[in-house]
Amino acid sequence: MNTFCLLLPKYTPGASDFRGKRDMYGTNHQSALKGTTTIGVVCKDGVILASDTRVTMGTFVAHKRGKKIYRIDEHLAMTISGSVADAQRTVDILKANARLYKLNTGRPMPVNSAARLVANLFFSSRLFPLIAQVLVGGIDTTGSHVFSLDPFGSLTEEKCVATGSGSPVAYGVLEDKYKEDKMIGDLLSVVVSAVDSAMKRDTASGDSFDVSVIDQKGYRKLSDEEKGSILGGS
Question: Is 206 left (phi over 0), alpha (psi -120 to 50) or beta?
Fold first, then answer.
């Protein structure tokens, strides 16, 4: 069942002109691309997704506990950055299509299929883009996967990836400490250290952070106590 004909974004005048220029309403879309730190890591037994919780509008902190990691299904999740409205609509579209896929086939949507669906959505809107950069991660019968997507639909599979304005700082930690074929328990401290470092050095990232893991038991968001324990021991 093809639902894309029903899910394409509406035309918004000037929405494609977001590279530091202003549209006919005076909106500078460059600000929509600033802020946030999101991280996705592939482990031997699953996937770790993490993000800070600060939501900014230029230099203004609009929300201190913004949700940037979304559960799509028990085996699948995604992180968001960019324009909140565009990113949340992308989440809703993927959730709906993941449910339809399960109803039609009787099995969960593969991770690469979910990522390709989002890539097709972004690419079909490339003239008037959805201003969002997302990570899609999860596990399926082929193993653990994390995919990175830009606003135009470019799709790459990564073992370890960070997005947003805090990503250069996060990469400094990830490149030094991340090792492939490690278990979730071994890499949680690395991911937490990376997002914590980004929050300390990037003004558009901060306030708090969320961490979610996906393994054979399903999707789970870490509690504040678990995060505090990991951060204290990292």
Answer: left
Closest CA to 114 of 70, 86, 78, 142: 78
Residue 107: DSSP 8-state: S
| pLDDT value of position 234 | 63
Helix (H, G, I), strand (E, B) or coil at 34: coil
Residue 105 annotated in active site: no
Q: What is the pLDDT of residues 191-230, one digit of tens each?
A: 999 999 999 999 999 999 999 999 999 999 999 999 999 9
Confidence at 107, pLDDT banded by 50, 70, 90: very high
Residue 217 DSSP code: T
Mean pLDDT lowest for which of 25-29, 70-74, 144-148, 155-159? 25-29
Given 12, 27, 36, 203, the catalytic residue: 36
Tens digits of residue pLDDT in 158-201:
999 999 999 999 999 999 999 999 999 999 999 999 999 999 99
**Which DSSP category does 31 fall into?**
G
SS3 category, 126: coil
Q: How crowded is residue 67: how many other Cβ atoms within 10 Å of its Cβ? A: 14
96, 122, 174 from 90: Cα distances, Å: 10, 9, 27
**Strand, coil or helix: 212:** strand
Say if CB 94 and CB 101 are below 8 A apart.
no
